[in-house]
Structure formats: C-alpha cells, structure tokens
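Hey, I'm writing a tutorial for new members on how sequence and structure tokens pair up, and I'd like a real worked example in the thread rather than a made-up one. If someone can provide the structure for the chain below, I'll link this post from the tutorial.
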Amino acid sequence: MTLVLIAALIAQPATTTWKCTPARMVECNITGCEERTPTTWFELDERRKAYRRCDAKGCDAYTADVHLSGMFTIYELRGRATMLKMSSDLRQFIDVATSGVSAFVNTGSCAPLAPRKG
C-alpha cells in the first residue's frame, strides 16, 4: 500500500502552468522611471514553452525559451527584448519588456493556473 501511494505521488506531474499577476508596474525611459497601473497579466506553461501576455482585450501568445537557473524559471522571448523570471519557492516574478526605447517592468506573484476546459 505504501509503495503504491509513493508511486502515485511520484507520477503526479509538477505544476507547469501559472498565472502571474503584477502588483506593481514601472515604465522607464531616458527621462527616468514612473509608476504605472498594471494592466496586463501573464500565463505561462513551462512544458509547452508558452508565454501569454494578456490584458482586457485578450492574450498574445508566444513560444519562449524556458530554462532553469538555480531557483528561478526564466522565460525569454527571442527577438522581442522580453523576459520573465519566476522564483520557484516564493512564486514571485519580474517581467521586463521593451517598446521603442522604453522598458516596462512588472513585479508580482504567480499562482497555479486552472486547466482550460474544452
């Protein structure tokens, strides 16, 4: 019985899908940095290497380079000057994206994302 329980626990896949919600957003450019109201959230799927940047209008989906660095999972979007770094223990994140010569820095926390139906 104990062996069956251990095997069942080992067979359970680790959570690989997350919703990361910013608590704070800062926009920086040559004149300095200003606090902004966060309007986006991020949906991540480590197994599928998916990074979705979402807002009230919907989500833009990208394929990310995903790799581990110590206690962090890093999602990088090649050619888009964008990356998201999430700590595996505290589930905190930082997302840095650029547009023109401005950088947008979002920080907040991530929670497991419920599976989609259908």
